[in-house]
Design brief:
Two copies of one chain form a homodimer.
Chain A lengths: L2 H12 L4 E2 L2 H8 L13 E2 L4 H14 L2 E5 L17 E5 L6 E5 L4 E5 L4 H10 L2 E2 L12 H6 L7 H4 L2 H4 E8 L4 E4 L13 H4 L7 E9 L1 E2 L3 E9 L5 H12 L3 E7 L1 H10 L13 E8 L6 H14 L3 E6 L3 H20 L3 E2 L2 E3 L5 H15 L5 E5 L5 E7 L6 H9 L2 H11 L15 H7 L2 H14 L21
Parallel strand pairs in A: 2-4, 3-4
Antiparallel strand pairs in A: 1-2, 5-6, 6-10, 7-11, 8-9, 8-10, 12-14, 12-15, 13-14, 13-18, 16-19, 17-19, 18-19
Amino acid sequence: MSQSVHVRAFRDLVGDGGVIDDPERMAVYVTDQRQLSTGSTFAVLKPTTTKQVADIVRLAAHHGIGIVPQGGNTSYCGGATPDASGRQIVVSLERMDRIREVDPVSMSISVDAGTILKNAQDAAAAAGLLLPLSLGAEGSCRIGGNIGTNAGGLSVLRYGMTRDLLLGIEAVLADGTVISDMRKLRKNNTGYDVKQCFVGSEGTLGIVTGAVLRLAPLPTRRATAWLKLARGAPLADLLALIRRESADLLTAFEFMAARSIALATEAMTDPSTLRAGPEGAVLVEFASSSRHLDLDELMEAVLAEPIEAGWIEDALLAQSGSQRTAMWRLRETIPEGEKRRNGSVKHDISVPLSSIQRFLDLAGAQVRSYDGDLELSVYGHVGDGNLHYNVLVPAGVDRIEFTKRIESSLSLQLYDTAAALGGTFSAEHGVGRFKKHLLERYGDLGRIAAMRRIKTAFDPADIMNAGAIVCPLGEKSTR
Amino acid sequence: MSQSVHVRAFRDLVGDGGVIDDPERMAVYVTDQRQLSTGSTFAVLKPTTTKQVADIVRLAAHHGIGIVPQGGNTSYCGGATPDASGRQIVVSLERMDRIREVDPVSMSISVDAGTILKNAQDAAAAAGLLLPLSLGAEGSCRIGGNIGTNAGGLSVLRYGMTRDLLLGIEAVLADGTVISDMRKLRKNNTGYDVKQCFVGSEGTLGIVTGAVLRLAPLPTRRATAWLKLARGAPLADLLALIRRESADLLTAFEFMAARSIALATEAMTDPSTLRAGPEGAVLVEFASSSRHLDLDELMEAVLAEPIEAGWIEDALLAQSGSQRTAMWRLRETIPEGEKRRNGSVKHDISVPLSSIQRFLDLAGAQVRSYDGDLELSVYGHVGDGNLHYNVLVPAGVDRIEFTKRIESSLSLQLYDTAAALGGTFSAEHGVGRFKKHLLERYGDLGRIAAMRRIKTAFDPADIMNAGAIVCPLGEKSTR
């Protein structure tokens, strides 16, 4: 059957407003966030109900048409865009963006999977609660994508990743079966927790159409400090001390190397006066929903010891909301700073906390020996063992060419180092299409075999986002 | 081949000390914790290494011999003991109880799966850290069983269930494949998180042989209060208020009905003077690892508002370690109090926090209308929406007969009520063999289908703990 016949059949299912087949309008759906690859499709479908999603999946499966589920299309790993074959359709959840319920007593929010993260955050806040998932893309990424990539971000240290927030799920399997378990229970041990399979599955096991997320009390007080790290400051020990003495009120421990801070500063129209110490800086924040705790007082008490020990050269406490905002703006402008400088090759490294310093030492030496002129931008959620270890694209060099060269050479050396320290090549960005070869290189064989079993169990015909993560058993690797 | 030939082959794999085939010595391995059912086996194997476990599994799979993995044999649902066929062997992990590593900087502990929970707690504490998993059976249950049942207990409110603590896993699949992913990473998004499948799987997908668990700073200060609930006190609102104003320092919110408190008091040799209010009592605890917070002061400030509102009739703050211990001892003696009174039929209910009061009202009416003379013992981790809603076995009545009668009649009414409120029949005890029919009755069809796919993916021949949770696809239900 020709693709135009299929498009007509899909149109019957979702209506005219639910189908895009004009190449110009489809363009944004087939190019990944980092613009490293452009795929091809013959239709972008935009269902409005779970039933429509199930109908689409059944029809596609019947004709062997591959499906690429898409939320906000903010994947860093090409997990949300089709391959070049032109035989996969894109199913965008962008019209399924209803907030179904906020339950303030149960502290939960139930949403359509296409809900933009920011909108869900706002709905929770309106009920006096916090949806503790916060990341750079929050204004455009969607909850289904957050689940598909087990999104992390800025609140992991205190509240965990998306997995830790997920209470209930609604999803359509590759044969059109609908899993409907939108319960808002904290505890529900009744056999395998099927929803866990979808977390981090990047659309390869089915299409998540709805989710229930846990909420937390909304912080009403914050204390924020900018720490200039002294030479030789032991990052992991500093973190352990602050965690312990803040009694888990610590919500952020964000490390930034001096170069990253400088890049961000250059990119700001109203440049920050915040500076790095010899080993960079750490942004520390405590948050509390209680009227009975003085967090500034606590911050001062907690920091006295590491200042005394000479780990911190200088600590600046935010004295106002605008000072706090300025500290965060500097941290959040780093990616923009990299972009202005001609971009960066990103390495989303995670190592055990006890190996962070060792990784920084070894990786730094590797970069220098690879090319003494390369510059790094290193920052990240060190409180979770997560470093964004980015190699800056030199001025005047083609970004995509450089990226491909580094990713096939230096990047592997860096990942080897992370792996040797018990770390990983992807802390929070996922695998998608771009990092499949890394999964094969570093994944435990038993674990990969189990992953392929799971893929086979849910999607034996490889309908769902084929080409991402793993293939079913029996299929030859498509790489 | 005869079973004695098999026993000889197993003896070759694990040595004389690793095989029990004397019926008398096997007895404790085939009877469940609640002594509701006694199964049969021809051998109990006690491997000492992961390789031995893999060898056992391969040999058993080759001959189609079923395997029941066993940790501390403390399942409330018959999940750890063999069926009556005599064709399943028991593989006990009790000799694999080595603590492999405590990493204080990474805040993690790596253990053999047969490690007794208490021993792991102690090893963490010796390094100044907390393994935040605590439950009644901690002196005998083992980490592998905690993972297999996603154990909850007393620390869930602050630290989550076993799933939330699990960083790494080592497991043997039904074909002898070993998954080895003992990394201690907070963040590692590299495809499906295979270890999640084992959490709550009760030995039906493979045998967990090792685990890495996250640790937390060890609390050094606690504030503990006994709240007598006033008539009409809104439990969920009280919880929400205390959570908010304690800024997540809340570690326990344990509800006890008056009857449960009386039962515990009767069972104590040195009876407590603590009493219930008209709606029972709540044990509240804050904990902190910081030297800079005064938790008693915080507790007083937090409780002022609900006292003012008339929700709490009286609040007693523990003034010493021994007063604190006395409060916890009362809470923890409730199961013993029930046992002394002739036992209870346990219902491990969970409902959304917003429906707890409604459940108590509806369920109470159901019990009264079923039999006006029945007495209840109701208590639990209400902070997680979890109620142990137990029907006391009347004096002079046969416990097992009564249990079976209630479980086939009144229990179903109570579970119906929980289900209608978006709740579940098993918050933390699991499914095992005893609650399989409930999974079929209340489970979403799509979810059960997905569970059977997962079972099929990992164990198509139904070697691993057959009869518990679900069967592979293609098999008729064994119920």
